[in-house]
Amino acid sequence: MINKIGVLPKFTGTQINYYFVCHRKLWLFSKGIRMEQESDTVFQGKLVGEQSYGRRRKEIAIGDNIVIDGFDAAKGVIYEVKKSRAVEKAHIWQTKYYLYILKQLGVEATAEIDYPLIRRTEKLRLSEEDELEIEKLTEAVQDILQSYKPPGLKNKTFCRKCAYYEFCWQ
Question: What is the residue extent of each domain of the chain?
Answer without folding.
Answer: 13-163
